[in-house]
Amino acid sequence: xxxxxxxxxxxxxxxxxxxxxxxxxxxxxxxxxxxxxSMYFARSFAGLGNYINLNTTGRQAVDRMSKDIRQxxxxxxxxxxxxxxxxxxxxxxxxxxxxxxxILSRTSGSESNVLLSGCEYLRYNLYQRCPTNGSYDLYPVxxxxxxxxxxxxxx
Length: 155
What we know:
Layout: H1 5-12, H2 17-71, E1 74-79, E2 83-88, E3 91-98, E4 103-108, E5 111-117, E6 122-129, E7 138-140, E8 149-154
Antiparallel strand pairs: 1-2, 2-3, 3-4, 4-5, 6-7, 6-8
């Protein structure tokens, strides 16, 4: 007994060109979505790493500066947007901001090192405390040597 011809052709039939093109289109779409997401997440992780590095260097700079300022005997001089000079025992410590290079550096004697890089803005404000009636309000100083509080702002 012989099989009908239509059944034999149907059994041998493969994928048509239309089916193949639809499958390729779906595959390319899914692959492009995966590539876009992986690029987005890679950039996000790189940005997160930069923020962590920025936070770490900023914290180290604040720690170093606050330690030196607390141990200083007095403030010798201050240029609001550039430099503060401290006298600590026999040491003279300078914190200098260079707006063209965007760095904050610390100099003590002949030793100089960079505390911050990529710093867009830095400002020193000096204040004195005049306790009256239990209030510890801060007032700007007229002379740097009268300074009791140093405020540092940077971006």
